[in-house]
Design a protein that fits this description.
15 helices, homodimer, 36% helix, 20 strands, 6-stranded antiparallel beta sheet, alpha+beta
Chain lengths: 451, 451
């Protein structure tokens, strides 16, 4: 990587008479910097009146903008003490970062705050007219990563998931091949709505769902030692910023906004208009609610991770085995909704575990045994099991071959007679249990961000 | 009530030559109106060029604005056919409604769209410069009701609930008097958060809550024949407009907003900024989400009522006895949060029933027996039972004395040793079961709005 930064310090008074002193300070600092990164160098381009123009270049790991901020501190301290001079302002006229990509982009890359020029595998980020605050916030490295990630993503777009069969049951004779949603709706067991992708389960359908819940708990979770916890249904953005959900699927979130106030007087106009018009005065409502600050549960694991934040777990209390079945998941599905299989709102049991790699490998094996028991002995399904690296891991470059792969998920897929195809059991089964494994490494990685 | 409306019709052409014809049409219509309401009269005030000024007054039930709209239809039809004249525009310069209040207001009353003058018990609503659309929407009667309601509310503000003891248990010796939330938090059984008034129940606290759930179901609901249903956690405004929640407690709702799109390109800037800054770009988010269209479950009954919308229930399938325990209730509490007793999010079992008045009276008695059994034999509580008319029924004027009262709720109150006072068991118990009775009449009233 090659960094080149052109900056201007504006001092509180004329510095032309102490030019030598400034040169010597910078020269001293260059010596210090040389110890850290041989390629890094601060050059004085011009000194005039109260203006100092600098150029900082580097080819190494020490970033010029960090050098600039440190340089500012040194000059402020030295010149402040001796000459009562302060630095009023820093401006970065130009900051150019050249770096090499692993692959040539397939189409134009854009990122906020900067221009990106890419010639074959040579990328250049050009920032202009940025201020000190911007540098302090340390966006630069994340901008470089974002460019690299966007190129990588272009190669994975539309690619299928890595999929590797682990196990397959025998074929089964299907005793019924109708679409269960349609049939249940006809019988009045189910009613669609009241909003998109949601269902009202009348007693007959509710009984089926709740029986599956009991099977999951009694036949899988309890025998393995899992204990129930209850988490909130509302996940604040701070948590999703850590787990990556907010940047990962912002278009699939049901957002939550809070009233700005509960003061009844502030709501009087809204109430009066609603009573008179029997319609919602959206403009008045909008003034009385905050911008979204949270979302409805997307998956239950983030809040379980959050619950361990700052907690030290002793070796002897491992493995920690917990599950939530209370939070209701909401996912905004634009298309592809189908019956109770692909919905905007579903009920799921999500187990989370913390343990040594050995404990979790052992748990995985036992869990698979329990699943086999449920699918073979209770549901009598035709199903298969596959080792899968989902797209979000592929994007992050976390793909190995069959031998080296130790993160990823195991998908359980069952044959749905009425659809005539193998369908992700995970999806069909989503009303029952979240079957994705947080295998040791994957889980620890997320958790580490919290602690 | 005295209504006085001054309106202007603007015709597509000069009408001065057909003044007589218009007079005769209006006179005929007056005769028709006289049959409906003797006090109603349309008077021509002026005819000039293409302008017709009218005044309509009434003291009865037939509203002048409805007469005006009918008058418009008649004139349009008659003059259109004969003279190819149309009515381009209706303007209401002034609409005054005088009516008497039951009580003199304690302070100034304001409502949208109109001025309200009140002199002792004499109220006057004055509307100026309103258009045809406004009249069509039939806001007038709701505006009159709103004025009356606001005066009534002034008398109930700060008033206590109607409260009448029904039954009282013996005093009990308390074996423990600490604050359960504090103690559980100290032991690590509970963790506050992640957002205001929410809790994370670790296995020990979850086990207590879930045990109470089992008791409620096995000891109260199942023995009485209730069946479980599963409803959505998200309630659209349309439903709350019918149940009155939207006008009743808009400041206590957790609102839900949807993404405007799931299209990943439309979210690119949001994603990029989130990745670079590790902060939420609220301005970009705001553009990508809709205004609120729904809220998180406030109580479970509205969606159960909704589920019966348009459904005919045969006499022989009564009583219908259902409950939901899946939706998680959210209520924005500005102050007064305390531990797990007064929270923003709670779990509740809400039973709803439809039946004849006799069936429901019988059910109420049996339910009280089951509650007694739970509180006396299982929890061994010191508690009491009171007949209560909550404020929202008081406001609506639904208060009777002990003898005539047949809507309202029965509250179950238990002594909380650590608080040193009788505390609403309903509140303390809110994590377990919604104990308010939807007594026959109250329930049917709400349901009727839906069907």
């Amino acid at each position: 990587m090659i960094f080149d930064l052109k900056a201007t310090f504006t001092f509180s008074n004329d510095i032309s008479l102490i030019k030598n002193e400034i040169e010597s300070s910078i020269s001293d600092f260059n010596t210090v910097l040389f110890e850290k990164d041989k390629s890094l160098k601060i050059k004085i381009k011009n000194v005039k009146n109260n203006i100092l123009n600098l150029e900082i270049s580097s080819e190494g790991s020490f970033r010029p903008h960090n050098a600039l901020l440190q340089m500012k501190n040194i000059l402020s301290k030295e010149l402040g003490k001796k000459h009562h001079l302060g630095i009023r302002d820093i401006k970065i006229e130009n900051y150019t970062i050249d770096f090499e990509l692993e692959k040539e982009p397939l189409k134009k890359i854009n990122i906020p705050y900067a221009n990106v020029d890419i010639n074959e595998k040579q990328a250049r980020i050009i920032l202009k007219e940025i201020d000190e605050e911007f540098l302090r916030r340390n966006y630069i490295d994340r901008m470089i990563s974002l460019v690299k990630e966007k190129v990588e993503n272009q190669y994975y777009e539309g690619k299928e998931e890595f999929w590797n069969l682990i196990w397959k049951s025998e074929e089964k004779k299907h005793i019924w091949s109708k679409d269960p949603t349609e049939e249940m709706a006809k019988l009045g067991w189910l009613k669609q709505g009241p909003t998109k992708g949601k269902w009202f389960y009348r007693p007959q359908a509710a009984a089926i769902l709740k029986t599956m819940e009991i099977i999951a708990i009694e036949e899988v979770l309890k025998p393995l030692g899992f204990e129930e916890i209850i988490e909130s249904n509302i996940v604040p953005f701070e948590v999703w910023l850590k787990t990556g959900h907010l940047e990962g699927m912002p278009g699939e979130i049901y957002y939550v906004t809070e009233p700005v106030t509960r003061d009844i007087e502030k709501w009087e106009r809204f109430i009066d208009l609603t009573k008179i018009t029997r319609e919602v005065p959206y403009d008045v409502l909008q003034k009385n609610v905050s911008h979204p600050t949270a979302g409805i549960c997307y998956a239950q694991c983030p809040l379980i991770y959050w619950s361990f934040k700052g907690k030290t777990i002793s070796e002897k209390s491992l493995p920690v085995l917990v599950y939530d079945k209370t939070a209701v998941s909401g996912r905004y599905e634009s298309g592809g909704r189908h019956g109770i299989e692909r919905v905007d709102e579903f009920h799921r049991i999500e187990p989370v575990y913390i343990g040594t790699k050995e404990q979790l490998s052992d748990l995985r094996d036992k869990m698979i045994e329990r699943y086999k028991h449920v699918f073979n002995d209770i549901f009598e399904l035709e199903w298969r099991m596959a080792w899968v690296t989902p797209w979000y891991m592929q994007q992050a470059g976390k793909i190995g071959d069959k031998g080296t792969q130790d993160t990823g998920t195991i998908d359980f897929e069952a044959y749905m007679p009425y659809r005539g195809l193998l369908f992700l059991f995970l999806q069909w089964f989503q009303e029952l249990m979240h079957l994705i494994f947080h295998v040791s490494l994957g889980f620890h990685r997320v958790l580490m961000d919290f602690i």
